[in-house]
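Per reviewer request, we include the raw input and output of the structure prediction for the construct analysed in the revised manuscript.
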Amino acid sequence: MIDDLRSCEDFLSQQARQGRFGFSSRRFGGSRFGSRRLQDCCEELRQVEDHCRCQGLREIVRDQQQLIGFGGEREELERAAEDLPQMCGVGPGRCDIRRGGYGRWE
């Protein structure tokens, strides 16, 4: 699953390193390079079946959190991953990364 979302993994990893978790489309991605990564991630999410998207993002977050360790960055990473489907305009709209469920389309 995670192999299908490499750009999303790269995007979230970049955001974690830069500490740029903002939840508006203007800040999310930051630079033109970050925006390109976000666009690539969105394209990958569109190619994954709706019911598999959140699971794939959960796998990415789990792997990234093992690298990050403990601290506020973990929560920021979770929040960023939760909002990615909504930012990309794909279902389910929002993923509940911590609880393993799906949010509603907002």
